[in-house]
Amino acid sequence: MTEQPRPVFAVLGAGNGGMAMAGHLALRGFEVRLFNRSPERIDAVRQTGSIQLVAEDDDSLPHGIGEISLASTDMQEVLKGADIIMVVVPATGHGYMAEQCVPHLRDGQIVILHPGRTGGALEFHNVVRQNAPGVDVIVAEAQTLLYACRLMNPGQVRMFGMKHSVPVAALPAYRTPEVIKAISPAYREFVPGDNVMKTSMDNIGAIFHPAVTVLNCSRIESTRGDFEYYIDGISRSTSVILEKVDQERIAVGAAMGFNCMSAREWLYFAYGSAGRTLYDAVRANNGYYGIKAPPTLDTRYLWEDVPMSLVPIASMGEMLGVPCPTTRSIIHLAGLLNECDYWDTGRTVERMGLAGLSLKEIRRLVLEGVHKPEGS
């Protein structure tokens, strides 16, 4: 049998996840090109031509030195010759990355967001559709980030964990097998997801991050995060509010005909943690013990998860006639805490390219990639 060609990867973003992914791909023998908007993050990689992954006391995790073929702030240079483009930046940067990529995309390339949060692939696809409608590029998203990792020093990443299975879905859904086949020489950990609405709506960070942070805001400020975020921060009363946000998320998904996993079901699926209530299931998860709260309210749990997870859910709910009062309350309170309008900066139906579409047309977009009213 003819061996499948080895793809060339472009990794966009040199934060924790991007550096880990670039280093790991290089360790697995793939050509890797690394992009970052600011040169400071990639200076060490440019000087040494490598990224070091460190996994203390766990040889099963990726570790060693991976050779990077190119580290640059020039998007055109990085995308030239790349087959698969891995976007590993906070979801607030997806629109910017899409705009920067558009002039340099070519037919046959695959873009994967790690992760998409809620509506990431839809937003990226919408930018490409509006600015380069003739380019045949597949946009896909992972449900969550594959790695648990932290930058230690310039060009050095400490690996804490790596998930065994992460769903990936393409837009349109029928092209997901193409994406999985293309990345399979590098990753067996990525498995086919149903569609981008499922990977987006099953973004459980939308449930556990913003509301817990808002409801514990005084405790975070008074202790500088010196308490266990999940175990202490999710009390019985707090969990009641989380379950209401969760119910609204599930209702929005159901209105579009997509069956979403509840947060309690997700805890059982991801960690084997069972409980009669969400509160019980959280406390049954050994993986949550010891995780501290953020030290300030200037945290991704608010500035990323509110505009890129809660806003799209509430915006879709408003368009579909599904009330999301608890979700909207958390968005409002988070905006007051950080003195900003998350509706103004967030991922609304307009940014996702869903505004004005009927339920049937949304499903056609997600499943078939058709972005126009029927009969037009």
Describe the structure.
By secondary structure, the protein is α/β, with parallel strands linked by helices. It has 2 domains: 9-201, NAD(P)-binding Rossmann-like Domain (Rossmann fold, 3-Layer(aba) Sandwich), CATH 3.40.50.720; 205-368, N-(1-d-carboxylethyl)-l-norvaline Dehydrogenase, domain 2 (Orthogonal Bundle), CATH 1.10.1040.10. The chain has helices at 16-27, 43-48, 75-79, 94-101, 120-131, 176-183, 196-201, 205-208, 210-215, 217-223, 236-255, 263-271, 278-283, 300-303, 305-320, 325-337, 342-345, 359-368, and strands at residues 9-12, 32-35, 50-54, 64-67, 70-72, 84-87, 110-113, 138-142, 147-153, 156-162, 166-171, 190-192. The strands form 2 sheets. It has an 8-stranded mixed sheet, sandwiched between helices. Strands 4-3-10-9 form a 4-stranded mixed sheet. β11, α6 and β12 (190-192) form a beta-alpha-beta unit. α4 (94-101) packs parallel to α5 (120-131). The radius of gyration is 20 Å and the shape is globular. The mean pLDDT is 94.
